[in-house]
Amino acid sequence: MIREHTCITVACDVCQYKFDEDEYTAHFADLNEARKALTGTGWTITADRKVFCASGDTEHQAALDALMPPEPVMQTPGQLSIDTDQS
């Protein structure tokens, strides 16, 4: 009997490494099941469904840093801005 099954697999958006269990690609019934399986493994799933493996190299860190909002610019009231062009 041949049956068609739809499933979800997870791969890192940076290096394309596939999330595996005992050297076999893990297959999940739905996104919620995939999220639960990745919990506590060091993998990151963002709100827009980007996935990053637990590798800590500079390429992966740069991808995570790119998702962060810019740091706020702090300026005390009455303080001159150091970013102004004084020419």
Tags for this entry?
Ferredoxin, 2 helices, 20% helix, 87 residues, alpha+beta, single chain
Secondary structure: elements and pairs:
Blueprint: E1 20-21, E2 24-25, H1 31-38, E3 44-45, E4 51-52, H2 58-66
Antiparallel strand pairs: 1-2, 3-4
Protein name: Ferredoxin
Organism: Streptomyces thermospinosisporus
How are helices and strands ordered from N to C? EEHEEH
Kindly name the structural category: alpha+beta
- Number of helical segments with 4 or more residues: 2
Helix content: 10-25%
Rg measurement, Å: 21 Å
Distance between the termini: 79 Å
Number of strands: 4
Largest sheet: 2 strands, antiparallel
Overall spatial form? elongated
Strand order of the largest sheet: 1-2
Average pLDDT, to the nearest integer?
A: 84
Q: Which strand-content bin applies to the residues?
A: 5-15%
- Low-confidence runs (pLDDT<50, min 5 residues)? none
